[in-house]
Amino acid sequence: MVCGKKNVFTMWMNRKTGSVFLKTLNHVLNVLKFSTNVCTQLPCKPGPSRPPWSLLFFGTDQFAVESLKVLTSCRNPSKGIVEKLEVVSLPGDLPVRRFAQQNQLTLHNWPPHDLEGQFDVGVVVSFGRLIHGGLIDKFPLWVSIIND
């Protein structure tokens, strides 16, 4: 159970990649929720040590939408682990773009610009583009990558 939503992952349970996906996303959310030091690199860049976090999500396809749904359900200003959630996607009629628009999430075109100091964590799920080191360095805590 993540963010108090018991049935969020139900549709993934019967898929071939479901088990690995669930474990990975659950791990990412648990680290964000409970860790006071989520840095994996030394030296640690300054950033908030406790949630809620500001997240920038990178994705394109339906696999990515399922992760974005979970993160969207974790937004709650008073007790959530996600304070701010924005989305980066590629141009075109893509599932992630449609979901972001339908759910009034701020949508950035690829490549995003002017991110310095705006986000704590980047989450990349089935994005289809190489995220260069300069962009990764914009996130004080880390970037989590989940591919299908």
Automatic annotation (TrEMBL):
InterPro entries xref list: Formyl_transf_N_sf
SUPFAM superfamilies tied to this protein: Formyltransferase (SSF53328)
Domain of life: Eukaryota
Protein name: Methionyl-tRNA formyltransferase
